[in-house]
Design goal:
about 140 residues; 7-stranded antiparallel beta sheet; globular
C-alpha cells in the first residue's frame, strides 16, 4: 500500500529562485543526498524537464527510475513514476508559496510504494528521510546562491 508523507520549510528567497534550483535536475547530485545521478530525457516547449531518469540511494530504497514531470504555473511541479526497478509508486510535488514577510514556503509531498514487501514504518521512515533531506538541501542550496 502506498504511503503519503508531506512536510514544509521556509526558504529565504523568492519563489522563482527556489523553482530555478528545483528545475535544475543536472545539479541534484550536488545538493540532494539521495540522488546520485540525474538525466533529463525529454523537455517541454519551455525547456522544462518532462521526463527525468534518477539513480536514487536512500538507504532502504535504492533504485534507478524515470519520472514524468508536470509544471503548473511558476509555483508548482509534480511528478509520477514512469518506470522503476523497485518502486510501484513514486508520486510527489513541490508547491511554493510566497510569505508575507518575505521568503517562500516550500511544501514537498511524496507518495511511495515498493514492489518488494516492506513494513509500513520502514517505508514511512524512508519517505521522511527523503523529504527532510531534500528540503534541507534545497534550503541550503538556494540560500547559499
Amino acid at each position: 500500500m502506498a504511503e503519503h508523507t508531506s512536510s514544509s520549510i521556509t526558504i529565504e528567497a523568492a519563489p522563482a529562485q527556489v523553482m530555478a534550483v528545483i528545475a535544475d535536475f543536472a545539479r541534484y547530485p550536488e545538493w540532494t543526498g539521495e540522488v546520485k545521478e540525474a538525466e533529463v530525457l525529454a523537455t517541454d516547449a519551455q525547456g522544462r524537464a518532462e521526463q527525468v531518469r534518477l539513480l536514487l540511494d536512500a538507504g532502504a530504497i535504492k533504485d534507478d527510475h524515470t519520472l514524468a514531470y508536470t509544471w503548473t504555473g511558476a509555483d508548482e511541479v509534480s511528478w509520477t513514476l514512469v518506470k522503476s526497478q523497485m518502486l510501484r509508486v513514486l508520486d510527489g510535488s513541490y508547491r511554493l508559496a510566497p510569505r508575507a514577510g518575505g521568503g517562500t514556503e516550500v511544501t514537498y509531498s511524496l507518495t511511495v510504494d515498493v514492489k518488494i514487501p516492506m513494513l509500513g514504518m520502514i517505508k514511512r521512515k524512508a519517505e521522511k528521510v527523503i523529504i527532510d533531506r531534500a528540503l534541507a538541501g534545497l534550503k541550503k542550496r538556494v540560500e547559499s546562491a
